[in-house]
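Weekly modeling sync, notes
Attendees: S.R. (lead), two postdocs, one rotation student

Agenda item 3: backlog of single-chain predictions. S.R. asked that every request posted to the team notebook include the full sequence so nobody has to chase files. The rotation student volunteered to paste the first one in as an example of the format we agreed on. Action items at the bottom.

Example entry:
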Amino acid sequence: MNETMKIIFGLVGGLAIFIYGMNMMSECLQKAAGEKMKKILALLTKNPILGVLAGALTTAVLQSSSATTVMTIGFVSAGLMSLPQAISIILGANIGTTMTAQIIAFKITDYIYLFIFAGFLISFVSKKEKVKNIGQTIFAFGLLFLGIETMGDVMKPLASSAFFVNMIGKVSHIPILGVCVGAVMTLVVQSSSATIAVLQNFAAQAGPDGVTSIIGLAGAIPILLGDNIGTTITAVLASIGQPKDARRTAFAHCVFNISGAILFLFLVKPYAALIQFISPKGNEIDVISRQIANAHTGFNLVMTLIWIPLIPLMVKIVMKLVPDGKEMGTKALENPKYLDNKLIAQPAAALQLVAKEVMYCAKLVDEMIGKLQYGNGKIDKENAELVEENAKILQKLCASVNDYFASLYSGGVLTEEQASQSAGMQYILCDIDRIGQLTREIMETVAKQNKGKHKYSKEALKELKKAMEQIQMIYGSCIQAISGDVNMDIKELMRQKEDIMQLGEKMRKNHIARVGKGKCDSKLTIPFNDVLHNIDRIGNSCVNLVEVAKENVTMQAFFAED
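Predicted structure, as returned to the notebook:
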């Protein structure tokens, strides 16, 4: 194998190991810090400073600004976050992503295999999931540096290539060319951290004189700026088909990085001098990796400080870029309102959206129960149609939520605790769906009889209305309980269920009495009993919801603490 092929294979192989290690570390960190992720996400407030902090911390945990950006776009799309709030998160994400470059700048060459062995040993021996995740994180950390070391080794011969040195010289002296190189590299690799790792490794190679860097800090900074432009493509791709505010969030990411690249492009040499002044001193090839990391962090810090007070201006800019008008890709009613498949890899965020979707289904059923009004001895045709329509929508939403759960389970991204909580949420969804379908059956049964020759008496309809009012009251209380309302009296809910069962028995006796007096047709007895049976079944499902709430399986478990 010739030298050129060895270099190419070494580069792509080392890059593959680096990206695999980085992705594995990100996944394991999420599992190990699942609960902490919720606390970080709790910082997503209207305060832009806290928003920036939340974005930075989330990205530091996820080890990917793209993941944070995609998550933010998902929240905006679901209506859980405002545009100004999302922009502050994006600003923080750009700071958080620089942590990877700072970690890479540490020289731990002699300890790479120790990290790999220690991580493997911990994950292999431990039976506890959290300890296993910590071990796998350490193992992935070692792989990350193994990839860097591999790339560094194969890059050394390039420093002696006259053709390559000449080509790099052109990039170093033409900043705009360096920006283009950085942008293209990131577009191809789809990871700004990987591109910067390659840049740090390459810059650490000695030039022809054997002392100075082959590219130098002034030559590396334009490539760094291009890298920041290239990373915005992930956000743009994630926003395709999303509501306008989600697309605006993606464009805010673009505006931030492009404006910064343009500004710093005119300040490359003085900025390089500043970074060299504040960074550790020594031989250039020994300290340039840290200088590049500091330049990356400094760029994002300065641009964040510039844009924080200008967030209202950023909002105006992106609203101009994505104006109001006909919404593209608006979701139909039967499609999930909150779920976002792009967040499958971030379970802490994905489960928040699932919890929101389940509560949306619960409200849909509450609306259906409220439409069962028979007070004047008539069935409201419009209400009957709405109950039928909502029942169909509910079925499709429940199917979508279950498919989403299947994706989370098959993706292997859930911790044991998250998987257990998810199972409880599926039980809740199942009972909510059952109550919705039973409500539709009640409406269909009563409406069908009142269209025929044999009709219910006004007394029967009034009793049905009273029963449904009680059902709606206990169902509403159950939803409060599963949403995490600590003030709900579970024993009182159980007593209300007993009242409904007693009411059902009373209604059966009253119906028989009316039949005996000729006020109700005897042929209505079977459908009337069917209705009462469905009311009992709704009561049983409400009890199931109460039992789940008693076990502390509530939607509150999936939301960030206030």
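Discussion: group reviewed the output briefly. The radius of gyration is 31 Å.
Action items: rotation student to repeat for the remaining queue; S.R. to check formatting next week.
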